[in-house]
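Predict the assembly for these two chains.
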Amino acid sequence: TQLLEQSPQFLSIQEGENLTVYCNSSSVFSSLQWYRQEPGEGPVLLVTVVTGGEVKKLKRLTFQFGDARKDSSLHITAAQPGDTGLYLCAGDGGGTSYGKLTFGQGTILTVHP
Amino acid sequence: NAGVTQTPKFQVLKTGQSMTLQCAQDMNHEYMSWYRQDPGMGLRLIHYSVGAGITDQGEVPNGYNVSRSTTEDFPLRLLSAAPSQTSVYFCASSYSSVTSSYEQYFGPGTRLTVT
């Protein structure tokens, strides 16, 4: 069974601060996805990283996939109240997993004005 | 496109009752999944399907049944509801291609309370 450990579980910061969320595993994933979820809604895909060492930027969000494809991070620069939400990482084990994703426990981010 | 739709949005059941959570997608995706979301536990896979007529168990399948008679529909049946099944349930669809990595398209969720 593949596990994804996500940290921290909670983050409460002031507007303008930077933050990093980590997603770690002892297993290798063929890809790592990051989702954002707002209260009362389903998660929405932010980005997928596929190649070890890959870095992707989405405005103020920077996503990195570890060289060994076992970990990933999400860095937000100058956080805004609109970034508030639940952030989830999810790994695809590849091979015959046929899209059976493993999700981390999630990070609840609150950005105060 | 409506994407992934789920009904009902909210449901309260008594222990022992049965019910079906409906899920439909109009994107012609071959893969569909059911997850439950509980505080501090992320999303846990209940059942999934790789195509019409093909289903398999996920991480927490006990107490739930699924079937997939069409590409579009993937209902989740609770056989005899228990308080431990109080949760938010999400249906998701995805597809495979050279450029995709089974990214999930989620429905809006069903909040189920079992008393």
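Chain A touches chain B at residues 1, 4, 6, 9, 30-31, 33, 35, 40-45, 48, 50, 88, 90, 92, 98-101, 103-106 (CB under 8 Å). The first strand of chain A starts at residue 5 and ends at 7.
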